[in-house]
Every structure is written in structure tokens, then in C-alpha cells.
Amino acid sequence: MEDLRTGYQITWCPGCTDFGIYTAIISTLKELESEGKIDRRKIVYTSGIGCAAKIHNYLNLSSFSGLHGRGLPLGVGIKMGNPELTVLVFQGDGDTYNEGIDHFVLHVKKIQM
Questions:
Q1: How confident is the model at residue 108 (pLDDT cuts 50, 70, 90)?
Q2: Is the pLDDT of residue 69 over 90?
Q3: 3-class SS at 46?
Q4: pTM for the full model?
Q5: CA distance 107 to 80
Q6: Are 72 and 104 in contact (CB under 8 A)?
């Protein structure tokens, strides 16, 4: 799974929790792929902008970068368009709880229904 790393220099601040998320995602995808549970050619991820969205530079998978706060509706739309895909959404606090709060609340509410 080393080929999941793009080789770009990571520019997150020292101590940023995005390092842990990045490491966990690579480790998890490696494990799931080795167990035959996922096919990396069927993985796509989305995000808005900000530090969390920088993962587009560092993770070598299909991706779609949208507007600030719109990573979740992008991911939902991609999943609806092709349910066979594994869709991941990377969002920081601004994407989720500021610009994107309406999408987050709407989708959480639908899941609970």
C-alpha cells in the first residue's frame, strides 16, 4: 500500500491530528484490501477545502475536491450514482460544523429515520 502515498511533502503543522487520520486510513485500507474486503479501484473520496482536504495531495486514490463544507453531499451523490463504490469523506471542523452544518444535520437526521 506504499503506492497509496503520493510522495508529496506533507504540509500539516507538527502535531496536527490529520497525521493520525492519514496513517489510520492507509493502515485500514491496507488491512481491508489484504482481506479482500475492498478493491482500491472502487474507492473514491471527497472533501471541501482546508487542512483536512489537503489529503488529496497525499493519498493516491480517486478523489473529488469540492467547495468548502460540501464534501458530504458530494460523497452522498457519488454513492447514489454508483452504490458499488466505497466512498470516504474527509472534512475538518469548518467543513462539517460551519459551512457544512446543514448537510451534516440533514444526513444524520435521514440516517436516524
A1: low
A2: no
A3: strand
A4: 0.79
A5: 13
A6: yes
State how many domains the chain has. Answer: 1
In sequence order, what are the residues at sequence separation of 6 or more whose Cβ sits closer than 8 angstroms to the Cβ of residue 13?
A: 51
Measured CA to CA, the distance from residue 89 to residue 52 in angstroms comes to 10
How many Å apart are CA 60 and CA 30, to the nearest integer?
13
Which CATH number covers residue 46? 3.40.50.970
Measured between alpha carbons, how far is 27 from 16 in angstroms, rounded to an integer?
18
Q: Which domain holds residue 41?
A: 2-112
For 35-58, write each residue's pLDDT tens digit.
999 999 999 999 888 888 888 889
Cα–Cα distance, 113 to 111 (Å, whole number): 6
Instruction: State the DSSP code for 35.
Output: T
Distance CA(90)–CA(61), nearest Å, equals 13
Q: Which three cell numbers stand for residue 5?
A: 502515498
Q: In this structure, are residues 74 and 66 in contact, taking their beta carbons and an 8 Å threshold?
A: yes
